[in-house]
Design goal:
The protein is about 35% helix and about 15% strand. The protein starts with 5 loop residues before the first strand and ends with a helix. It comes from Actinomadura adrarensis.
Amino acid sequence: MAGKPSVLFVCVHNAGRSQMAAAYLTHLAGDKVEVRSAGSAPAETVNPSVVAAMAEEGIDISAETPKVLTVEAVQASDVVITMGCGDTCPVFPGKRYLDWVLDDPAGQGVDAVRPIRDEIRKRIEGLIGELGVAV
């Protein structure tokens, strides 16, 4: 990857998993990685339990809003990480695709969101290593 790697996180509602993943990657890698997130059927707002769980980590995502997945976002990304959107995610040649199987935090309380958050953090730390980004 020439220049700064870019990563797109996609889930159905862009209200939970993809928001947490994008926030962690931004928090841990800073401006060394271009980060996007989107949903195939975006929700109205980010899940409040997800906002609360991330706040426990010192990461404020309360101002984030779910965004619709666009072909342009996929084309502009080096790595596309899907989380439960299955066949609704567009696939383009030359992109690296990863599918992270994670529980959906929709409708869950903070206690149920914490293990999902912690698993996402572990995967993001691994991803940063794979991207070869020094943090």
